[in-house]
Amino acid sequence: MVRCLAYLIRVRIAILDLIVIKFWVGVTDNNWYNFLANLKPDEVNFWQPSGTPPFRRNIELFLFKLHTPLNYITGGGYFVSYSNLPLSIAWEAFGEKNGTPSYEEFRNKIIKYRKSRGHNYSIDPEIGCSILGQPFFFPREQWIPIPKDWKPNIVRGKIYNTKNTIGANLYAEVQNKISNLAKKNSDSTLKNSKFSVSEQSTKYGAKYLTKSRLGQGAFRVLVTDAYKKNVQLRVNERYLL
Fold first, then answer.
1. Omega before 125 cis (within 30°)?
2. What pLDDT sits at residue 116?
3. Cα–Cα distance between 125 and 114 in angstroms, integer?
4. Other C-beta atoms within 10 Å of 197: how many?
5. Looking at residue 220, what is its pLDDT?
6. CA distances (Å), 19 to each of 13, 14, 176, 197, in order?
7. What is the pLDDT of residue 202?
8. What does the pLDDT read at residue 53?
9. I want to staple 70 with a disulfide (CB 3.0 to 4.6 A). Which of 66, 112, 167, 187 is the partner?
10. Between the CA of residue 11 and those of 21, 40, 137, 202, what are the distances in Å?
11. What is the DSSP letter of 201?
């Protein structure tokens, strides 16, 4: 009886883990955010000047937290994939969805960031690209104060999940804001962006977006990544032979 009860408890924990939503709150360049909030694109490239991934665990949602003193969560997007891309390819794939109106400004910003962080100069440096689908931008009165456990020394961001109280409350508030936006906006894309913890996990994040509203830039990057992996696999097979 005790063994049976212990087994049932483990099964219940495993099921709860399956529906836990992990999401990232990323420190966001204010100018990048303002430009894209006005543009209202169907996808965005949340880039970083180096090719080191900002997080190591799979996430479903990527939220924007502006730089201090604007300590608020102001929107986000649904995480599709992460890729390291040459700067020129990132622009070809996403254009203004990189958060700048021109390639020159995009390149200048990245070169400036890389120089300030001691990276070697490159004509076409490789940058980190977190590709987000169905981005949403809250109006100023809907901005969410940062969670109470947020530390001032966080430079890139922090992982949260709905398994703990702070993460669950933050996720619920974000979901509520998205719902409010959907009521004010007749755009079906925005309405479809709302999802609930009670839904099946297969409808979340990259799997959901890949099957439904994957943007052209994201699709191109995913195809490119798949091709690179296939080429690398063939090279490895030849090497082993």
1. no
2. 82
3. 9
4. 14
5. 67
6. 10, 9, 19, 7
7. 39
8. 87
9. 66
10. 18, 43, 38, 19
11. G
From the number of C-beta atoms within 10 Å of its C-beta (0-12, 13-18, 19+), residue 147 rates as: middle
Report how far residue 32's alpha carbon sits from residue 168's, in angstroms, rounded to the nearest whole number. Answer: 27
Structure tokens at 96: 């203004």
Contacts of 33-39 with C-beta under 8 Å, sequence gap 24+, read 33/64, 33/66, 33/74, 33/75, 33/99, 33/137, 35/96, 35/99, 35/100, 35/101, 36/97, 36/99, 36/135, 36/137, 37/74, 37/75, 37/137, 39/96, 39/97
Which long-range CB contacts under 8 A does 193-200 form with residues at least 24 apart? 193/78, 193/134, 193/136, 197/19, 197/21, 197/162, 197/171, 198/19
Task: Write out the two tokens for 58.
Answer: 């799979």
pLDDT for the residue 197: 39
What's the pLDDT at 58? Answer: 82
Residues lower than pLDDT 70 in the chain: 1-18, 186-213, 219-241
What's the Rg (C-alpha) of the chain?
20
* Burial (0-12, 13-18, 19+ Cβ within 10 Å), 33: buried
Domains contained in the chain, CATH given? 23-240 (2.30.130.30)
**How large is the angle between the packed helices 103-116 and 87-94, nearest 10 degrees?**
140
Contacts of 155 (CB under 8 A, 6+ apart): 27
